[in-house]
Amino acid sequence: MKPFFSIIVPCCDVAPYVGESFDSLLSQSFGDWECLAGVETSKDATEEIVRGYAARDPRFKVFTGPRSGSCSASRNTGTDMACGEYVIFLDGDDTVAPGCLERLAKAIRERPGADLYPCAIQVRNELTGRNEEVRDNYPAGFSDELSGPEATLMLERRYKYSYPCPMLQLTVFRRGFLVENGLKCIYGLRMQDSEFSPRALYLAKRVIPLHEPFYIYRIRTGSVQTVAKKPGHFYKDLAIRLKSLFAFYAEKSALAGFDRRIGKAWARRWTGTIFSKWFGKGFTAAIPREERLETLSIVFADGFGDFDRLLESASFARRFAAGKVKAFLRDPSARDRVERFFSRIYFPFLERF
What we know:
Layout: E1 5-11, H1 15-26, E2 33-40, H2 46-56, E3 60-65, H3 72-81, E4 86-89, E5 95-96, H4 100-110, E6 116-118, E7 120-125, E8 134-135, H5 148-158, E9 171-174, H6 175-180, H7 193-203, E10 213-219, H8 235-253, H9 260-279, H10 281-286, H11 289-299, H12 305-311, H13 316-330, H14 335-352
Helix pairs in contact: 1-2, 5-7, 7-8, 8-9, 8-11, 8-12, 9-13, 13-14
C-alpha cells in the first residue's frame, strides 16, 4: 500500500541538523509517510547519521549521489522514486511543525486531487536569533480554490515589486501532477524555486491554499542561501533560470487559449529582473562589466528568439529598454551609452510613475 506522503530530503553537509529534521518526522502523530533521503558526498557524518535512521525505521530510504552544489538532483531522483500520492520537499537542515502532517492529510482528504496545496512557512533565523516571521503567499479569505493561471495573476498583483516565486517547501504537490508534466529542477541550479515554481504554478489545474504553517525554515551560517553573499552571488544561476523561463513562455504562449494577462505579468517580472540585476546602479558599480556580459550572454546563448516572443507582451518602455540590452551585448561601442541610459533615463523614469 502506497504511503500518503513522500517526503524528499536532500542531505549534504547537514550532520548538525539532519537528526532534528528526521526527529520532527518521527514525532508526528500521522505516520503514513515515507522519507526519501538523497545523500550527496559530504565532508561530515551526514551519510552515517541518515543511514542510522534508515536502519531503525524502514520508512526512511536512502539514495546517494555525487556532490552537485544544489538540491536539484536529490529532488528529481526522489520524485522519481516516490510512492506516495503527495510530495513534500524538506531540506535536511529544516524541520516540520508538531502535528502538521495530520492536519495536512485531513485538509487534503477533505478536498482531494488538487495539483498544489500551498501552505505557510515559519522562519527560524539563527543569524538574528529571532523566529517571528510566518510567510503565506495567499491572503486568507481571498479564494479557497484557484487555477494555476489565476494563482499566477493573484501573486503578481499582490506582490507588485517583488514577485515571490513560491519556495518549493511551501507547497504540497500531487505526485501525479509532477510526473505528468515532467516537472524537474535544473541539475546543479541553486535557489531553484524561481525557475521551478512559476512553471509548476502555471501548469496546475487546481490550487487549494491551506495556510498551514507546517514548514520550519532555518536561516543559518554556511547554508547555500547565506554563503558568499556579494553583489554578483548566483548571477550565473539567475541567467540559467531566465533562459529556461523565456523558453517556457515561448512554448506556452504559442498554444491556443493562452491568457495574455499571464504574458504581461511575466514580461514585467522577467524583463525587470534583467534591467535591474544587470543595469541597476548598485550592480553596475559593484560588478565588473565583464562578469555582467558573461552571465547575460548565458541568457541569450541561443539567440533572442524566446526573449522577443516575451517582449510581444511587454509595454513600449520595456521593449525599448530591451533593445538597449541587445545593443549592450552586440556592440562594444554602445556599452557606455546603454549603462547611462538605464541609470539616467530608464530607472529615474520608473521612479516617477
